[in-house]
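Data availability excerpt. The first of two example chains:
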Amino acid sequence: MKRWLPAPRLSLLLLLVWLLLNGSLSAGQIALGLLFAVCIPLALRAYLPDALRLRRPDVLLRLLGVVLLDIVLSNLTVARQILGREAALNSRFVWVPLDLREPAGIATLASIITMTPGTLSCDLSADRRHLLVHALHVADEAALIATIKARYETPLREILEC
C-alpha cells in the first residue's frame, strides 16, 4: 500500500481539493482527482518529510490556547506601544538558543513567533541551534528568551520529541 500511496492523507487532501475546486462530483472529475491523488505524491515521494508523530495532543491543545491568547494580548500591547512615544520603544534583534532539534518544530516555533505581533523570526543559524528574532520592544533580552522558550519551545519539544 505504501508503495502506491506514500502519503495517504496528502492523497486524500489532493482529491478533496480537486473536487472542491471543480465543484463537480462527476465520474470524470473523480477519476482525474484520483489520478492526481496517486501520481503527485508518487512523483514527490523523495521530497516528502517523514511522518511526524504527535506525542502529546493535550499539550498541543494547551499550546494552541497560549498562542491564541498571546496573539490577542500582543495586538493590544503593540497598539499601545506604537501609539505611545517612539523613544520609549527599544527594538532589537535577539538570538534565541534552541533546544528543539526537530525541523518541523523549529519551523513551527518560527511561525508562532512571527504570528505574534511585535516579534518576527528572521533567521536560523547554520547549525540550527539559534533563531534570530526581532522584537519591537525589548526591555530585558533574557526575559524575552525565557518567555519564548517556556511558552512555545518547551511545549513543542513535548509534542514532537521524546
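And the second chain:
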Amino acid sequence: MKTHEIQIRIRYGETDQMGVVYHGNYAQFVEMGRVEWLRNIGVSYRSMEENGIMLPVISLQLDYKKPARYDDLISVSTTLKKMPGVKIEFEYKIYNEKREILTFGSTVLAFVDMKTGRPVRCPDYLLEKIRE
C-alpha cells in the first residue's frame, strides 16, 4: 500500500522536564503524517468535510522504542494498511535522523456522515485516488 513520509523538527515546548518529547505529542505527529498522506494523494481533510464526511479516530496505538529530543529532526512514515471500507487504517514509523525507529503506531478512523453522525463507506473519490 502507499507510504508517504514527512519531517518534523522537535520544538522545545514539545519536550518534558526530562528533555524528551512528551508522549502525548506523538498523537499529533501521526495526525500530521496522516493529513499529509491524504494531501499527497490529492485529498484534503477540508475537502472531505466540505463533502460531508468526517474522519474521527476510533483507535490509536503507539509503541515507544527510543526518545526524540529537542531540535531533533524526525521522520514520520505513514502507510495505508489496507483498502478502506467504513474504516481506514494507517501504520506509522517514526525515525530519528540516523533512521533509528523511535515509535511504531497505528490508527483506525471511521468515515462518518456529518449530517447523520452515522458511519458510511469510504467515498468513491478517495478510493479512486488510492488506486491511482
